[in-house]
Amino acid sequence: MTFLTSIKKRLALLFAAFAEAVGSFLDEAAARLTLAFYVLMGWSPRPTDNGRFWNRAIEVPVIVHIKQWSDQRILYSILVWPATVSTRKRTPERRTNTA
User: Fold this and answer.
1) What is the rounded distance in angstroms from the CA atom of residue 65 to the CA atom of residue 78?
2) What pTM value is reported for the model?
């Protein structure tokens, strides 16, 4: 009987490992599909809490097609997102002399 219980324990461990692997795969697949959906819809794939305001109606991502110069075949495409960090430096506030 100990032989059968050891087989049952090993099968239980194998099933648990298989279930864990399938669960992690499905979790990663769901995250990647959600990210791809956001990108294709033109939405921000991550929150932009640090940076400037992003007007999503005006500043949409741009797709750039890189073509071969001889026959105009598309070699690859690049998706360019607008900058979410302000490149302008803030000007210091103007001080007035009160003396």
Assistant:
1) 7
2) 0.40
